[in-house]
Amino acid sequence: MGNQAQRLDELDPLAEFRSKFVISDETVYLDGNSLGRMPLASRTRIEQLLQREWGERLVRSWGESWIDLPQRLGDKVGRLIGAVPGETVMADSTSVNFFKLATSALRAKSGRMKVVTEATNFPSDLYLLQGCVDLLGGGLEIVRLESHDGVHLPVEQIEAELDENTALLTLSHTAFKSGFVHDMKRLTEAAHAVGALVLWDLSHSVGAMPLSLSDYDVDLAVGCSYKYLNGGPGAPAFLYVRRDLQELLANPIWGWFGQKNAFDFGLDYQPADGVGRFLAGTPPIISMAAIEPGVDLLLDAGMEQVRAKSIAQTEFLIELWSKYLEPLDVSLNSPLSAQNRGSHVSLGHAEALRIDRALIEQKHVIPDFRRPDNIRFGVAPLYNSYHELEVAVLAMADVIKSRSYEEYPDTLSGVT
Question: By the 8 A CB rule, do 271 and 251 touch?
Answer without folding.
Answer: yes
